[in-house]
Amino acid sequence: MQFRLLASDNKTKARCGEITTNHGLIPTPAFMPVGTQATVKTLTPLQLQETEAHALLCNAYHLYLRPGHEVVKKLGGLHKFMKWDRSIITDSGGYQVFSLERLTKVTDDGVEFQSPIDGSRRFLNPEIVMDIQHALGADIIMAFDECLPYPCEKDRVRQSMYRTVKWANRCLKAHNSDDQELFAIVQGSVFKDIREECTDRLVEMEFNGYAIGGLSVGEGNLLMNEVLEYTTPRLPENKPRYLMGVGFPLDILDGIEHGIDLFDCVIPTRNGRNGCAFTSNGKLKIRNSCYKTDERPIDKNCHCYACKNFSRAYIRHLLTSNEILGLSLMSLHNICFFENMMKKARQSIIEGNFLNFKSKFLSLQ
Amino acid sequence: MQFRLLASDNKTKARCGEITTNHGLIPTPAFMPVGTQATVKTLTPLQLQETEAHALLCNAYHLYLRPGHEVVKKLGGLHKFMKWDRSIITDSGGYQVFSLERLTKVTDDGVEFQSPIDGSRRFLNPEIVMDIQHALGADIIMAFDECLPYPCEKDRVRQSMYRTVKWANRCLKAHNSDDQELFAIVQGSVFKDIREECTDRLVEMEFNGYAIGGLSVGEGNLLMNEVLEYTTPRLPENKPRYLMGVGFPLDILDGIEHGIDLFDCVIPTRNGRNGCAFTSNGKLKIRNSCYKTDERPIDKNCHCYACKNFSRAYIRHLLTSNEILGLSLMSLHNICFFENMMKKARQSIIEGNFLNFKSKFLSLQ
Predict the structure, then answer these.
(1) Which sequence spans correspond to the domains of chain A?
(2) Which residues bind Zn(2+) (chains A, B) (predicted)?
(3) d(CA B221, CA A342)
(4) Is B35 marked within a binding site?
(5) N or C: less crowded end of chain A, CB within 10 Å?
(6) Superfamily of domain A2-265
């Protein structure tokens, strides 16, 4: 992997660059659609390519449970399995184990939990998670971290941070794949001293990139910005920075302003399936009866397949009739909207007017 | 509309031709995927075009209930609404009213029933059904008929047939659209004399084409063939014949052998969504665990997007994980399989070896 900075904004910490992996180039800042179970819900890889997404985030946790990482490996790895020849990041499963599972037992060694699929007891620790991600074969893989709920008591956050740092170190030692880059995940909830200590310790270990985790979990945009404000300056300039699970356009543009290079979120697909379209003039609840005979596309400024071909009235009809094509068209459009926003953000950084772009973009939202 | 016969089989009544509508050519015998609610479930029009489907069947009944035929008309008609620029047939709603509705009250004037969407009382009769289909604007529209369950007492079938004939006549009188061709529907369950009388009466009225309805409702393949055996010879040679709601490959090939030109059925899409793939070597239940690591495509002889790009293992993973992409890929493949079967059937009729083709094809199913 190579990371090259192309331009930095004068007025903010925003930066524009490119990550090169074995599966091509990711222009940054980049938004990655989420393909939890080796598919970005409702879309073919061909449709996804048309959104100009350059990388996807898949979940090691889900693929470990089903179909199993060894199955994916046997079938040639995740790229071949899901027929996506651009870049892939796999999340380590930390977030999923702690947020989705009950009956979870955490020790310094690892996490025992119950599979939601077959009820079997499962155990994950840093070494196993690295094995899983090696088998899946994503271009960028994540260290196994402990994710806490929000809010959380400071003492617990500090203890958890030390565990995350130790686990990151074990991941680093267990990482033996030349084709895959390992990123660490900074935790520490909304506590400045804990985030700073976590960041410094992880930076010392020299990972290939750094993610900021444990945000977008209910703390809100203001606190998220506070954390980014004191965390990102401690991260090395020459390595990619990834804000995990973020987010709405406002959060993403704030993240870019703080020097973040990578984002992922289910919002465009999940909200799309729920009938919410993002447009250059703000959100549009496509099920509303006011769109019943609306001949216009979802967004007149969008060039996606959905906007080029279908009226709001038709897409509304599909959603109110529970037709799957409605879910696909909404997902496709929303991902295009996010990717297009990123493209404009990159352009504005290169042209030195990111803040203008940001305030104009958000004023219409 | 023009209907031109290109070739007839020497040994059977099979024939090959082409129907030309304002929206292009339909090579016959043709299989039409079903787009009940103005969408062939899970597929974009672009994906559908790739299956080489030349016509779709949509349901006037469903579109009348939602979004309403006047809405579709306001939006430029069904072709523009659903972005399908090839031919469309709309079914009259007869089958739906009688098979889907409760609290149905039938008189010679028409049918009163309760909308399953909002519980409102609705009334359809031949004139209203023609209005609805004129508003939708399909290339071929169907007369309003009474559909009986199977089995059904002969006296009731005879009375119902007379009603269907009267309603067909009222449809003919109410039909005032030059751009749309009106087909009548032959009813009569499995009774030879009733089918024959119905056929003769409808043929006298000179419709643009003739459908055989009330089959594929539980009577089985043998009885279906019996009905076709005595019904199709009474239909005019120079007009298209449409066997409604049929069927499995065996039923379709039998229909072709009896001189049928058009077929529609939900089997490829519905069975696909349920995990059943049609292949050149028979049906394949993709959820079976034997496919867990199967690297092969669904059908090595198929050139569809699903078979060109994905393994059985991946599609199995999608279906067992309840991922929508699995439903799309299965639907796409199955429609391609049916369209490809039709293409080969047409070719075999032209080459004079339809029976050979049929027996070889079915021997592998």
Answers:
(1) 2-265, 267-365
(2) 302, 304, 307, 333
(3) 58
(4) no
(5) C
(6) Queuine tRNA-ribosyltransferase-like (3.20.20.105)
